[in-house]
Amino acid sequence: MQRKKMNMKLCIYALVFVGCALSPYCLAEDKKPDKAATPLIQTTLHGYCPVSYFTDGQAIKGDAKFQSRYLGEDYFFANAKAKKSFDAEPDRYLPQFGGWCTLSLGGPYGKRNPGDPEVFAIEDGKLYLFWSQRALNAYEPRVNSILRKAPRMFAKPQLFGYSPVAYQKQKKAVKGKPEFRAVFRRQMFHFANESDRQLFIKSPEQYTPLYAGYCAMSLAKGSRYYADPNFFAVVDKRTYLFLNQEMKDSFMLNPAKAIAGADILWIGIQGDGTR
Which letter does DSSP use for residue 230 in this model? Predict the structure, then answer.
C-alpha cells in the first residue's frame, strides 16, 4: 500500500515538473530588462495628428519626432509645421467635448462613449469625433439638434463645480466659474479665476484630486463612495477628497497607510473598466 502511495507521489511530481518545463514562462528567454529602454508614451488620439484634420482633411498618424504635451496629454504631429501650429493655438485643434463621441453626448441619454480618431467631422472649424461610422451617419441629418445638446451635457463640471486648484492654493473649497474652465482627461473643470486656470493647465496632474472623485478613505477600507468636495486633504502636493469629516479624520491618522490601501483598490477599479 505504501509503495502505491509513493508511486502516486512520484507521478504527481513528474507531471508538475513537465508542466513547468513546458510553460511559456520557462520557455521564454532569460532576458534582463533593458535599463536604457525609454518608457512608451501613451499618446492622445491614438497618435493621430490633431492638426492634419484641418490642413489635410483626414486622419494622419503623427511622428514621435514631433510631439508636444498639453494639459497632461501627449500629442504626435505629422511634421514640424503642424507641431508649431498646435503649440501656438492648442485649443483650436483639440477635438470638441474632450474627444467623446458627439452623437452619444447629444443623443437622448447624453452618454459618454469615446470617439474614434479615424471617424470625424469638421463643422465651423471645429473637430468632432464619433465612436463609429454608423454614429457619424446618424449625426449628419441631425447636426443642429445634436450640437445644441452635446455642449450642455459636456459642460457639467467635475467636483460639482469646485476648483481643483483652490484646495492647494487657497487651502479651502472654492466654487469655480464657468467662464474659467479647462478640460483634462475628457473631464470639465471650473476655476475661481484665470490665474488658477493657468496653474492647472501647467500642472493638471498635481491639482486634480486622486481617484476621480471617490472618497479616498472609503477606497482604503475596500468600498466606493463619491466624496463631498468640501472635505479634502493635501498630502505631498496631491489632493484627496472624502465623504465626510469622519472619513477625513480617519485618513489623517495614517495618510501613507490609507493611500497605499486606496491605491490597491483603485488599480482594480481601473482594470475592470468601471472608472
Answer: E
